[in-house]
Amino acid sequence: MARQAKELKTFGNVRGRGTASNPANRFELVEIELDGDWVDDEVRDAAEAGEAWNPAGRTRFFRDHTRGIIARNQSPDVGFETSINPYRGCEHGCVYCFARPTHEYLGLSAGLDFESRIFVKMDAPELLRRELSGRKWQPQIIVISGVTDCYQPVERRLRITRGCLEVLAEARNPVGIITKNHLVTRDVDLLAKLASHHAVKVHISVTTLDRELQRTMEPRTSTPERRLEAIRTLSDAGIDVGVMVAPVIPGLTDHEMPRILEAAAAAGAVSAGYVPLRLPHGVKDLFADWIQRVYPDRATRVLNRVREMRGGDLYDSTWHRRMSGAGVYAEHLDTLFEASRRKAGFDGRRARYELSTASFRAPPPPPLAPGKLPAQLGLFDQG
Predict the structure, then answer these.
(1) Average pLDDT in the 34-57 region?
(2) What is the pLDDT of residue 182?
(3) Whole-structure pTM value
(4) Which of the residues 82, 123, 182, 250 could staple to 305 if both were Cys, CB 3.0 to 4.6 A apart?
(5) CA 28 to chain CA centroid, nearest Å
(6) How far is residue 29's CA from residue 39's CA, in Å, rounded to a whole number?
(7) Strand pairing of 82-84 and 175-179?
(8) Helix, strand, coil shares of the chain as percentages rounded to 5?
(9) The 3-state secondary structure of 292-315, one letter per residue
(10) Centroid of chain to Cα 34
């Protein structure tokens, strides 16, 4: 039984959140819709208390009792086979995030739920140790943050990513990290240890150098300046670091590509890549609503250019095209990137090392069985 498409309902601009709506889950047949009078009452009560009403409320965290931590990838468009994602959902709140629809598999919404209902894998370090110490493990590159960012705000308190890096550093297993948060520099000690065994590569995502655009589009991420600072800190520590201009949004951020690459090169990046905007499933409606509300003067141009790259639609899931797009404008972006990359000097840069499994040593198995968690009860909702 198919659900009829409905108009996306928004709550206006929600401070600190990337989207302003919580659309129905595409897998659910029943939808609960907030009554307009109830919303008006909530907004009035918040105003009387001198507060801004937030339909998402505070961010809530739930334990994810997964039994395995290493995911296997079979997509021909993704350049890695194994990955770790310590968190499901992401408080960074990037409005364009391609991972938003993954929350629908949990019975939640790709909208506000994705950035305010976060599932955390407290067992991740122990599970990782169990896998790396097992006889079946064949040393290979593991990517952290193949889906959601492993350095989102709550990592500062939970330190799950750091726990995984401690295991990887002990095992000297090569790892790749993708993040847009300066918090990665907290773990420079572990990353430097991995670098000494040619076992780490970090990619910092820089979408824009416009701080106002970043604040609106990626509300809880590090500022552009802090991301460049992270590149510099990691590079100075002897860690190979690259920049990802991702996503590139046609008509909104594409013109910044030359400046981003130049700034990243000056900070010490040794490699660069880019990915055009991807809007799978409900993300296309969330993004279209956002661009029309926040940048109404640019909305038509941006959406039309996205359609030009995606065969007339806002998204094309075809293998080998979904990560790059197709058509004249996609070719233009590719030409712009290559010219900007060369001008920034990336052709003359070489990585200090290639990632290697040569130094791998199996770590001892965990002393405690998964499930014996540290006392974090005050942080979590039960779910």
Answers:
(1) 50
(2) 98
(3) 0.86
(4) 250
(5) 25
(6) 23
(7) unpaired
(8) 40, 10, 50
(9) HHHCCCCHHHHHHHHHHHCCCCCC
(10) 29
Residue that has been written with the tokens 């750091």 in this structure = 162
Pairing of strands 71-72, 380-381: unpaired
- Which of 161, 149, 167 has its CA nearest to residue 88? 149
**Predicted local confidence at residue 279, as pLDDT:** 95
Residues ≥6 apart with Cβ < 8 Å to 332: none
Polymer length of the chain: 383
Higher-pLDDT residue of 43 and 263 is 263
- Say how far residue 220 (Cα) sits from the centre of its chain: 12
8 pLDDT band, cuts 50/70/90, is low
List C-alpha distances in Å: 69 to 37, 84, 88, 162, 165: 44, 6, 12, 15, 13
Integer Cα distance of 161 and 168 in angstroms: 10
When computed from its CA atoms, the radius of gyration of the chain, rounded to whole angstroms, is 21
Residue 120 token pair: 């955390």
**Angle of helix 283-294 relative to helix 299-309, nearest 10 degrees?**
150
Give Cβ neighbours of residue 185 (< 8 Å, ≥ 6 apart).
229, 230, 233, 234
- Contacts with 355 (C-beta within 8 Å, 6 or more apart), sequence order: 141, 174, 176, 198, 199, 200, 201
Strand order in the sheet with 380-381: 87-88, 117-120, 60-63, 380-381
So what's the pLDDT on residue 247?
96
Closest Cα partner for 286 from 98, 92, 159? 98
β-strand pairing of 117-120 with 87-88:
antiparallel
Cα distance between residue 59 and residue 156, in whole Å: 15
Token pair recorded at residue 182: 């300066």
Range 29-62 burial, b when 16+ CB lie within 10 A, else e: eeeeeeeeeeeeeeeeeeeeeeeebbbbeebbbb
Is pLDDT above 50 for 51? Answer: no
